[in-house]
Amino acid sequence: MATSPLFFPIKPGTQNFLSGSMGEIRPNHFHGGIDIKTDGKIGLPVYAAESGYISRIKVSSYGYGWLIYITHPNGLVTTYAHLNHFTPAIAQHMLQVQYQKQAFDVDVTLPETQFPVKRGDIIAYSGNTGGSGGPHLHFEVRDKNDKLFNPLRYTFTEIKDQVPPIVYNFALVPQGIKSRVQGQYQRKMFTPVKQGNIYTITDTISAAGLLGLEIQAIDKYDGALNQNGVQAMELLINGEAIHSHTLDGIPFELQRQISSHINYQELKLSNKAFQRLYVADGNKLPLYETNKNKGKFNIEEGKLYEVLVNLSDSYKNTTQLRFMMRGEGNAYYTNGTPTVTKPKINYEILESILKVTVADTAKEARNLDLYIGNYKYAVIPSYTTAAGSVYLYNLIGGLPDSVDLAGTKARFKFEHTIVPDTEFLYSNRYLDITFHKESLYDTLYLQTSHDAQDVFSINNPLTTLFKPAKVTLRPKNIPADKSKAAVYGLGWGKSSGFLGGVWEGDAITFSARDLGKFKVLSDTVGPTVKLVQKSPNQISFKVWDNLSGMASWRCEVNGQWLLLKWEHKNSTLTSERLDKTVPLSGDVVLTVKDAMGNETVYRTKI
Questions:
Q1: Which end of the chain, N or C, is less surrounded by CB atoms within 10 Å?
Q2: How many CB atoms lie within 10 A of CB 36?
Q3: Is the pTM of this model over 0.70?
Q4: Which positions are tagged coiled coil (predicted)?
């Protein structure tokens, strides 16, 4: 049996199982490696994948948790994350660093000579630290520029996979004002059935104009139920390849670009991850081979099209999605009449198209008056269904103030068109927004509001950003103590997340990674501290905060600094002595601060 170019880092030589694969969809980032199961336990030996030297060690309660980087002579770097503890020499060095810096979170770069390792050496023990959702080892392979490679490209015999990808759904998405899917301007989802190794639908789909295809699919490995990501997809129209992508070689700094690789809104609304088989505007990932339309395809009236998608995983198991499409016309038609006593107007924005649906009392569809400043434009109906007549308008032509159908009106709150790749400052009476050059993926039709409860809205939470925007809010109700007031993001439901901010006069400025709703809240209550246990060997505390969250802590025993390890998943601080031969004894003072500087001091004796 051929030897893998890399040594498997957990239980080498035996079958292993994965709970996560390279490139699978995570909120706001690609998964950058593989997650190797550790039998639901912590403390399994972790082995160096190849000879080299430990070049970096990081300890944190978040993200990767306890993390080791090994740099190899061929220029590759392997990383081992969510570790429980290091081997004794490494552990002692890191403990000395923590005591020297008097900090739990440390990030250390090491010289080539300090911790050389050979292929197969034990470097640490597996754990569940950082953002881990359960015991496992997260393993990555990078180059010197932090480009993330699929570890399974090294054909580990420890991972068995004879299961081809599974297709759940696909969707057709209009890409132009003349586009139609089954006669309508709509994103339409279809659920195929499996026949042999091919997923298909029996009906021929009627469509028109320029379209994009999205696929919701997962992959599995032998002996595991986990739903993993599909490694590669290729789209062919009538036998011609027009788009392909492989989730490998992802630049670390572009991982957040996943939000343009997938249908981000669909993920947030339905928790379904649809990968796009076309390159959306603002997508800068170097993963694609496409046609001149970037994977979008045009459906012409009267023509028949075979759509074929090849899906493959890291072990070259393949699945096909195949269906037929027939070109239809996009001229006006009617197949129903709304039954209402009073006209009703609804609207939504799909890409750059304003779609207005009017349930009218008239038997025949009437033109819609659209107003931009002092100008009035007549918009003819595109089609009529039982839901109403549909009117389509490209917002690139200018932002409308309102529409009017025989006296029934709808007003819009569009304030400005903001294009990507441009720095832009927008300001009104209650807020300022600075979009940096790389903030936006796509053109944004800005809408803001400020209500009586002092809630500020900027579009909605379905709009994410690649690089943060700088936002300044001017609340109506100025906090009595601004030093305790900050901006919080109001997410889905009743949740709120601390975003911080700096006050200047009666305005506060913060950095926004996503758009949505924001509110200034005051936090005047310090964290709560509860003693869990104390002994000459160890002391531990439970700590939690009511709003802004834990920011810092310091523990002293008889005036000497004591390391407390923070585990955010169970809100616990636990001591570790530098010299294990010296027992803990005397006066203990723990000082804990939240993000707004509220302080709690807890005293006890050992």
A1: N
A2: 26
A3: yes
A4: none
Ramachandran angles phi, psi of 100, nearest 5°: -65, -40
Pair of tokens at residue 106: 């440390």
Distance CA 22, CA 342 (A): 54
Q: What is the 3-state secondary structure (H, E, C) of 327-378?
A: ECCCCCCECCCCCCCCCEEEEEEECCEEEEEEECCCCCCCCEEEEECCEEEE
Neighbour count for residue 425 (Cβ, 10 Å): 9
- Tokens 């994948």, residue? 49
Tell me if 552 sits within 8 A of 535, measured CB to CB. Answer: no
Residue whose tokens read 């199982």: 17
Cα(20)–Cα(423) distance, rounded to whole angstroms?
Answer: 37
Question: How many CB atoms lie under 10 A from the CB of residue 280?
Answer: 22
Percent pLDDT > 90 in the chain is 89
Q: pLDDT per residue over 377-417, tens digit each?
A: 999 999 999 889 999 999 999 999 999 998 899 999 999 99
Q: In angstroms, rounded to a whole number, what is the distance separating the alpha carbons of residues 286 and 411?
A: 41
CATH assignment of 18-154, among 3.75.10.10, 3.10.270.10, 3.40.190.10, 2.70.70.10: 2.70.70.10
Q: In whole angstroms, give the CA distance from residue 388 to residue 577.
A: 72
SS3 track for 279-341: CCCCCCCCCEEECCCCCCEEECCCCEEEEEEEEECCCCCEEEEEEEEEECCCCCCECCCCCCC
Spell out the residues 6+ positions from residue 527 whose beta carbon is closer than 8 angstroms to its own. Answer: 543, 544, 545, 550, 592, 593, 594, 598, 600
Taking Cα atoms as reference points, which of 547, 516, 542 lies closest to residue 530?
Answer: 542
Task: Yes or no: say if 355 and 368 are a contact pair by the CB < 8 Å rule.
Answer: no
Max Cα distance, the chain (Å): 91
pLDDT of 1: 41
- What CATH topology corresponds to 528-605? Immunoglobulin-like (2.60.40)
Output DSSP code: residue 586. S
Predicted pLDDT at 282: 86
C-alpha angle with apex 468: 31 to 30, nearest 5 degrees?
10
Q: What is the CA radius of gyration of the chain?
A: 29
DSSP string, 370-418: EEETTEEEEE--SEEETTEEEEEEEGGG---SEEEETTEEEE--EEEEE
Rounded CA-CA distance 455/460 in Å is: 13
Domain with residues 417-522, CATH architecture? Sandwich (2.60)
